[in-house]
């Protein structure tokens, strides 16, 4: 029966989920996250081996279905995702303390509307003197999916749609800081499956995801493909697993604004993109290289659109807070990493840390810095945007490519000069290159094309969709089956 999701109903469910996870009162790690709101999560198991077993049963059920039956389940997932987008958005912010509810809601609707389904799977036929050769895109089996804290339920639902459309089963090892939200999404997929006449447990997950449960997933013979969405550490670990793996890793997207751009629009677009979900999306604008002759106008447009400019002294103080020292236990090397207390927080909250009090209208912090500044060099994932003045396009491209650090993830440019646009796109070699729009146009939000929350730069699948989770199989019919 459809639930009437009023504000108070959403609040009731979110607080009941968090309470039943023990997050509000119990010490971390002591909760039973197979239960929520008085009900067991469907498809969530205390043990990873049990989750893989359930995902294997889910895979067998999907294999036995017609494509139309699969599509019926996917339609039910899309519908429930739309209906419960505000619940998952609220839960995501409450559990992780990161991001913005209205933007997370929009991200779920985007997943529901623009994640490709079974239509993405197409067979190819080749005919000639020797007959017919058919190439079909077959499932791998059970896919092991590692998901991030930054887009937790969005990634679970997007991956579930694509992986099921391709005929696979799925088992998740979600981010430990987003267990409730991720596993709520696993439960939602299973509820949708049951509603549409599919198995009660179509996809599975674990209640206590750890590095050890990830290792069980890597080593289990039933898991044939690993898909990892996260930072460099986890991408490296799946790529070292010895299994076929899809790695969707970190980025540090630069933006160039030259003096042919519609500068006022560029200022608004950049702040819209950079502040979306408090800069959590890996594609979001992270640093700007602005031609010196338009930099003042660009900054003025940014300020008119919700940016608050701080001085370099304030920026340096803020950098000491948002970046903290971390020691690698194996090598003993100490390096600066982003503080988890600051990732995805509101601009207002970050400004308070350096004694600046502003209202809710401020959605992004901007500052002029040198290229070497840690705000330029680190993927902050918070609404802080450094701006570096550049002389010309040569310097802009040179510095922007260096700031991207070879992630080949995403880059942006505001310009009407097609030579400049082409030169930067060629030099930076990113999976996504957005021209004259906010970053989110690159994942189909206000831009053409499908969406995904798993952008696989390192392994080359690009913006993943159902076909990324398939293996190609060939069938040859000798001397027959041509009709000409
Ligand atoms: P993260 O790297 O902290 O964690 C991702 C997942 O990997 C979590 O489930 C975590 O528990 C697990 N993990 C971490 N190290 C592991 C290891 N050695 N073995 C097994 N599992 C391990 O990611 P996060 O902070 O939640 O997300 C932010 C990062 O992910 C950013 O760098 C961002 O750019 C990237 N990201 C990329 C994409 C993309 O599509 N390319 C999408 C979202 C996020």
What does this structure look like?
By secondary structure, the protein is an alpha/beta fold. The chain has helices at about 5-20, 50-65, 65-85, 85-95, 100-115, 150-165, 180-195, 210-220, 230-240, 265-275, 290-305, 310-320, 345-350, 375, 395-405, 420-430, and strands spanning about 35, 40, 45, 125-130, 130-140, 140-145, 170-175, 205, 225-230, 245-250, 255, 285-290, 305-310, 325, 335-340, 365-370, 385-390, 410-415, 430-435, 455, 460-465, 470-480. A seven-stranded parallel beta sheet has the order 13-16-17-12-11-18-19, with helices on both faces. Strands 3-8-7-6-9-10 form a six-stranded parallel beta sheet, with helices on both faces. A hairpin with a 6-residue loop joins strand 14 and strand 15 (about 335-340). Helix 1 (about 5-20) packs across helix 4. It is globular, with a radius of gyration of 23 Å. It starts with 6 loop residues before the first helix and ends in a 6-residue tail after the last strand. The relative contact order is 0.14. Nicotinamide-adenine-dinucleotide binds near residues 146, 214, 282 and 454. Nicotinamide-adenine-dinucleotide (NAD) binds near residues 175, 234, 251 and 453.
Q: What shape does the CA trace take? A: globular
- Kindly provide the radius of gyration, computed on alpha-carbon positions and rounded to a whole number of angstroms: 23 Å
**Biggest sheet: strands, sense, closure?**
7 strands, parallel
Structural class: alpha/beta
Ligand species: nicotinamide-adenine-dinucleotide
Short description:
The protein has 484 residues and is α/β, with parallel strands linked by helices. The chain has helices at residues 7-20, 48-64, 67-83, 85-96, 101-114, 152-165, 179-195, 211-219, 232-239, 263-275, 292-304, 312-322, 347-352, 374-377, 393-403, 418-428; strands spanning 35-36, 39-40, 44-45, 124-128, 131-139, 142-146, 169-173, 203-206, 223-229, 245-248, 254-257, 287-291, 307-309, 323-327, 334-338, 364-368, 384-390, 410-414, 432-435, 455-456, 462-463, 470-478. 39% of the residues lie in helices and 21% in strands.
């Amino acid at each position: 029966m459809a639930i009437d999701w009023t504000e108070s109903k959403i609040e009731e469910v979110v607080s009941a989920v968090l309470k039943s996870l023990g997050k509000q009162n119990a010490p971390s790690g002591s909760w039973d996250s197979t239960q929520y709101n008085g009900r067991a999560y469907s498809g969530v198991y205390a043990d990873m081996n049990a989750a893989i077993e359930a995902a294997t049963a889910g895979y067998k059920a999907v294999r036995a279905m017609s494509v139309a039956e699969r599509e019926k389940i996917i339609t039910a997932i899309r519908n429930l995702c739309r209906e419960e987008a505000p619940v998952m958005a609220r839960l995501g912010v409450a559990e992780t303390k990161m991001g913005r509810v209205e933007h997370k809601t929009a991200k779920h609707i985007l997943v529901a509307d623009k994640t490709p389904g079974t239509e993405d799977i197409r067979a190819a036929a080749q005919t000639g003197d020797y007959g017919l050769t058919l190439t079909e895109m077959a499932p791998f089996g059970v896919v092991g999916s590692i998901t991030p804290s930054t887009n937790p339920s969005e990634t679970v639902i997007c991956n579930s749609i694509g992986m099921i459309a391709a005929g696979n089963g799925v088992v998740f090892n979600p981010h430990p800081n987003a267990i409730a939200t991720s596993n709520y999404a696993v439960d939602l997929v299973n509820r949708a499956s049951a509603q549409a006449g599919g198995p009660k447990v179509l996809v599975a997950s674990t209640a206590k995801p750890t590095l050890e449960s990830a290792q069980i997933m890597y080593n289990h013979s039933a898991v044939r493909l690993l898909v990892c969405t996260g930072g460099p550490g986890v991408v490296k670990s799946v790529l070292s697993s010895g299994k076929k793996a899809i790695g969707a890793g970190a980025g540090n997207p630069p933006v160039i604004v030259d003096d042919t751009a519609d500068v006022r629009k560029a200022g608004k677009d950049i702040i819209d993109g950079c502040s979306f979900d408090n800069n959590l999306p890996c594609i979001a604008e992270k640093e700007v290289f602005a031609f010196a002759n338009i930099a003042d106008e660009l900054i003025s447009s940014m300020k008119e659109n919700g940016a608050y400019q701080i001085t370099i002294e304030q920026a340096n103080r803020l950098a000491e807070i948002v970046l903290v020292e971390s020691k690698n236990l194996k090598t003993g090397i100490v390096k600066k990493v982003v503080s988890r207390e600051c990732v995805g927080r509101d601009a207002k909250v970050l400004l308070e840390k350096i004694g600046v009090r502003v209202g809710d209208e401020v959605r992004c912090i901007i500052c002029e810095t040198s290229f070497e500044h840690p705000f330029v060099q680190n993927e902050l994932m918070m609404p802080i945007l450094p701006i570096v003045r550049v002389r010309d396009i040569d310097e802009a491209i040179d510095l922007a490519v260096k700031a991207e650090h070879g992630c080949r993830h995403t880059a942006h440019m505001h310009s009407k000069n097609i030579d400049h646009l082409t030169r930067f796109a060629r030099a930076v070699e990113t999976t996504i290159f957005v021209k004259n729009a906010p970053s989110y146009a690159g994942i189909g939000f206000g831009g053409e094309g499908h969406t995904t929350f798993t952008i696989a730069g390192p392994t080359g699948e690009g913006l993943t969709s159902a076909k990324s989770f398939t293996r190609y199989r060939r069938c040859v019919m000798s001397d027959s089956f041509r009709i000409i």
